[in-house]
Backbone:
């Protein structure tokens, strides 16, 4: 009897072991070498696809418009696009395999491309999309991944994100056209080059110690790395694809760090951390700052704060809104002096490069309707929808025709992207290791401006270079020494 | 001599009050700051005039209930109320039964079970998060409020020791007297011990309600869709410029707990005042 009991127990245990061998619910085989096999071109019928859009698109009603238009067009197939109703920063790697992720995701290229290695998103037949010819190669590259010598595109670019200069037109000196327009081109000097911005910021602060000219969180690599790129620095070699080659200190990148430290001198110690990044909306609105740097997608947040200020001054809501729209201006970053010294007058200037990102759509590898998803991506990146997106959200379309038609800021961003003045964030997984060392370095650099004379770390060219070489080494260590090798 | 004693007494009173007021301020000040911040007109923390908002308005509270396109606070509130109410009912029932059993009945596994629960209770609950997530995916209880209710209720009896301590203080002689009069176990529990245990039942109900009401970790793990969020999870998802709305939401979630407290406090006092063994 006892023996039979043991046999029964052994059988049960075997059963338990075999249970683990079953195919888990909600999961499906990840695509291996190519995803195009899933995209047969024949639309799945009567399916619901869950789309994860960004919060601003939902808030301003664009997403609703997009879904309604798509659902109307594809109603004969019974395809319905719905709001995935999830946190915009969800983790597809955790939730996707269990069937709780969205079918389509809208995110920045570095966020989407981190899912490539785990095969959580599908390679797409992008050549078949309406937008293919209109999107520049540099934008497509942000979504490309090479496996066994074959290039796969895993996302579709929608809009370009890069740092831009926000300033208050009503805070320019009254006589700027005579005193701050040396080249008489009707553009204030402080918006044309960083040397003039430095001088004007000093003047503003000297006139009123509570006010500042240009203010930004220098510790943030997204805002500060562009200064290094402008003078020849880069993150990864081979167009940001080779993690073995870290080049933050390459070329004359040390000049970029010199500029950053000089900029810190016209700010206060809040530039050392992320305080300004969070408070800039309010401080630009209430006139504490003249200018700051941010991405175009937060324009309405700045505008809201400025409207509040004007309302406080006694204007009606309509008047305040009109005045705020007139006085809040976004423009491209001022130019940098070739010699890397913004404290001195200079005649030679060059374009400032900025770090940027390409937001786009990707399709989850766990979707049951890849063809319907592709139809949605195709529809939402069409010319009409991109124009509508621009109209609702003020974003800069990645499509050439839409950017040209929209003009203004969109055209500027598109041109900067195409000319290489926007350096797209690397899309390889190793990019996750760059932020902390860079944060620490930029924070230390900004802090240096507030140290006493004899205690400063960054004074000579060698000391700046040493700082950049150290941070490059730290990133290298984080990628190759500290991470687990697979 | 009498004057000196009077002076010392006055000094003692003054020092005691100073200490009490200082301690009260330490606890009260953050609450006051949050309340004032919730009435901030600009919405962000950075427009404050020093420590307090520069201008006040009810806009944050209005937005909390009207601007629901992205942050559906009323829905989150109802979700939390649903989860907390059912968890409260089920947890109270299970905890009281567990505690009563452990206090009143002698059985072979009683001591080992008490020791085991004591040891298991020492492990922080978030240790099992991954296991809980995997189990919930298998039971299809992700994005399901009943999944949370199940976990809260099932885990609640682990904390039965306080309730058992209360039952231990009720003399067993009452049970024996009732049994002599022909009462069975259920009658003894329902008609004798339960009315005497009102304070601990109310205490259990209140704590069982407040835990799910303010928990963040478990809802974050199990609720993926925004319209399923609880208040704690929803408030954490607010944008960085929405501080006044966050403060208003945080203030408003205290309302049901305060109502519940005032509704139930009389039962705590009544229960404590009632006696059983006379003489």
Residues:
């Amino acid at each position: 009897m006892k023996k039979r009991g043991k046999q029964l127990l052994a059988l049960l245990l075997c059963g338990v072991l075999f249970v683990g061998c079953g195919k888990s619910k909600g999961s499906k085989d990840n695509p291996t070498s190519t995803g195009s096999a899933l995209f047969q071109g024949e639309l799945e019928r009567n399916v619901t696809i869950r789309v994860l859009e960004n919060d601003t698109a939902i808030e301003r009603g664009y997403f609703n418009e997009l879904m309604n238009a798509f659902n109307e067009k594809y109603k004969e197939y019974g395809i319905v696009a719905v709001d995935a109703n999830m946190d915009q920063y969800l983790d597809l790697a955790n939730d996707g395999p269990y069937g709780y992720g969205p079918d389509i995701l809208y995110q920045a290229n570095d966020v989407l491309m981190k899912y490539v290695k785990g095969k959580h998103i599908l390679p797409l037949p992008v050549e078949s999309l309406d937008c293919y010819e209109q999107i520049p190669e540099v934008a497509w590259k942000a979504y490309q991944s090479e496996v066994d010598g074959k290039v796969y595109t895993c996302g579709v670019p929608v809009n370009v994100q890069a740092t831009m200069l926000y300033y208050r037109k009503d805070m320019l000196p009254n006589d700027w056209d005579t005193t701050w327009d040396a080249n008489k081109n009707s553009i204030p000097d402080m918006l044309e080059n960083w040397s003039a911005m430095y001088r004007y910021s000093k003047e503003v602060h000297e006139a009123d110690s509570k006010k500042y000219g240009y203010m930004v969180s220098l510790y943030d690599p997204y805002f500060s790395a562009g200064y290094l790129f402008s003078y020849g620095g880069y993150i990864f070699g081979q167009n940001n694809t080779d993690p073995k080659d870290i080049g933050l200190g390459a070329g004359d990148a040390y000049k970029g760090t010199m500029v950053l430290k000089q900029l810190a001198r016209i700010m206060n110690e809040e530039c050392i951390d992320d305080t300004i990044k969070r408070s800039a909306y309010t401080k630009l609105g209430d006139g504490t700052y003249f200018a700051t740097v941010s991405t175009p997608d937060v324009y309405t947040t700045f505008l809201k704060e400025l409207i509040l200020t004007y309302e406080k001054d006694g204007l009606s809501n309509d008047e305040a809104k009109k005045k705020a729209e007139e006085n809040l201006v976004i423009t491209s970053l001022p130019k940098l002096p070739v010699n890397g010294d913004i404290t001195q007058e200079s005649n030679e200037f060059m374009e400032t490069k900025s770090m940027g990102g390409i937001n786009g759509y990707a399709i989850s590898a766990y979707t049951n309707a890849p063809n319907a998803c592709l139809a949605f991506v195709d529809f939402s990146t069409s010319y009409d929808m991109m124009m509508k997106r621009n109209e609702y959200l003020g974003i800069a379309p990645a499509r050439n025709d839409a950017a040209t038609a929209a003009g203004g800021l969109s055209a500027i961003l598109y041109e900067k992207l195409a000319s290489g003045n926007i350096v797209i964030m690397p899309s390889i997984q190793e990019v996750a290791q760059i932020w902390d060392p860079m944060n620490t370095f930029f924070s230390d650099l900004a802090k240096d401006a507030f140290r006493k004379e004899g205690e400063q770390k960054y004074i000579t060219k060698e000391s700046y270079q040493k700082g950049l070489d150290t941070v490059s080494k730290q990133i290298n260590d984080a990628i190759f020494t500290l991470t687990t090798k697979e | 001599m009498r004057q000196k004693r009077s002076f010392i007494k006055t000094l003692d009173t003054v020092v005691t009050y100073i200490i009490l007021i200082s301690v009260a301020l330490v606890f009260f000040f953050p609450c006051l700051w949050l309340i004032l911040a919730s009435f901030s007109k600009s919405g962000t923390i950075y427009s404050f005039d020093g420590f307090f908002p520069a201008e006040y308005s009810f806009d944050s509270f209005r937005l909390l209930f009207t601007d629901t396109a992205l942050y559906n606070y009323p829905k989150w509130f109802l979700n939390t109320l649903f989860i907390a109410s059912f968890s409260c009912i089920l947890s109270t029932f299970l905890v009281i039964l567990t505690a009563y059993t452990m206090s009143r009945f002698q059985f072979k596994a009683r001591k080992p079970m008490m020791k085991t629960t004591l040891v298991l209770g020492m492990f922080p609950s978030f240790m099992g998060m991954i296991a809980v997530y995997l189990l919930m995916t298998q039971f299809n209880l992700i994005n399901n409020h009943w999944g949370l209710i199940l976990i809260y209720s099932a885990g609640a009896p682990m904390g039965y020791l306080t309730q058992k301590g209360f039952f231990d203080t009720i003399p067993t002689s009452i049970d024996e007297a009732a049994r002599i009069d022909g009462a069975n176990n259920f009658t003894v529990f329902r008609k004798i011990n339960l009315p005497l245990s009102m304070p601990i039942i109310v205490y259990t109900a209140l704590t069982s309600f407040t835990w799910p009401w303010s928990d963040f970790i478990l809802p974050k793990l199990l609720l993926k869709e925004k319209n399923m969020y609880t208040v704690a999870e929803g408030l954490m998802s607010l944008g960085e410029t929405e501080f006044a709305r966050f403060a208003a939401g945080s203030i408003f979630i205290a309302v049901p707990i305060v109502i519940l407290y005032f509704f139930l406090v009389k039962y705590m006092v009544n229960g404590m005042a009632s006696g059983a063994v006379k003489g």
